[in-house]
User: Fold this.
Amino acid sequence: MGKQWCSLFIITFFELCTFTFSRLEQVTTPPLPVLPLPTYQQLKWQQREIIMFLHFGVNTFTGLERGTGHENPAIFNPVALDASQWVSVAEDAGISLMILTAKHHDGFCLWPSKYTDHSVERSPWKNGHGDVVQELVNAAKPRGVDVGLYLSPWDRHDRRYGQEKPYNEYYLAQLQELLSRYGSLREIWFDGYKGEHAPNMSYYFTDWFSMVKELQSSINIFSDAGPDVRWVGNEAGFAGETCWSTINRTSLSIGNASIEDYLNKGDPKGTDWLPAECDVSIRKGWFWHSSESPKKLSQLLEIYYNSVGRNAVLLLNVPPNSTGLISEVDIQRLREFRTAIDTIFSTNVAEKCSIKVSSQRGGTGGGFGPENVLDSDHLWTYWAPRDGDEEDHWIEFRADEGMRFNVIRIQEAIGLGQRIKRHEICVDGKIVANGTTVGHKRLHRLEEGVVHGQTVRIRIEESRGGLPLISSIGLHFDPYWHPDKGV
Assistant:
């Protein structure tokens, strides 16, 4: 009798195991990625959406945009400098990364470098014992705000400039100082800009980049050619209407004006993930000048829609003034900007709608349904159509009581690659917007203004890899948008 019970137990156990494994095999797996893919640091950078540039130095005191290199360090004396105020301004604006010009083209260093005396060490500020870089790091770190640095390759002061090997050694030495002295940095900014009459010499970017990654492996390197973040090709703050995060790095070179359009648009056939960063100043100039005022709110919103809203990150320059503080008029404009963004995107009309889709991977309950586009995860949960579906892929929102909106937001699950090539949006059967790429975020601010309707259908007409993966969709109302008035 005992043997019979033992046999029955064993048979039942194996049947249960078989049933369990069978059920596990039926759980729908995610689709394969479409290469190339972003790194973890690139994803984190993209999700910041807006970051801050701080242009500060001797130009702040001379009124110039490009210093001569002959400035006397004695002019640098920001008597009320308060990096905590800078960080507070960034926090209030929802900004979590601040990039400081540690050295601009004039060669003046905002930290006491042992390789030159053209620095804060020879200024009256703090009797020559000040360090702006350290002040920013000390203010930012306890509050969870990250820091990045810009070290200008073009140096109009140092006598070694124009002598290829000595100057590259000097630059690399200063780079080592910055990357080893101030803790973990999140972005290092390089450009190839130099004046028309500057000595002709080569920068050893490959050596520099290798040293950066050796000293800080998780940092993002920005330049015209990446390797982690690319320049968008202009200083207006606008990404291309088509903007791929993918590009061919072999086609890029730093300081090459002929590739600006390629940088602006990216490349659907690109083999490298190299997303775009849009640098623009809140004022006309990059440095603070007493005669200048901040851009209007409408201008900042237009920049936002054409940078963040076109799959890029906005690097907004907010220059401290000659006292060492960010000016109150700039602070007020930033507050208005943050308030406007929050006002526009805090309410999503789509959340009150019923949703239909052309198909979904794994069927109902498979984990890839349209409900994912309305949750709070805009990266790793998404609607995925069924494999092999030859029809156009679409998702439709319906509200019988009607909807009112003038902004449409679409986001892709870029952790599995950028896919969407063409899309179209209809309200009650009428086309209200269309476009090409989506990427991390695509914002359509409707040219006809506010629309009313019961159904909104977003149709994905073409995708890399065949399947679009949509992580989030929003229907929003922008009260600041009045196309009939030109603002």
Notes: The two ends are 88 Å apart (CA to CA).
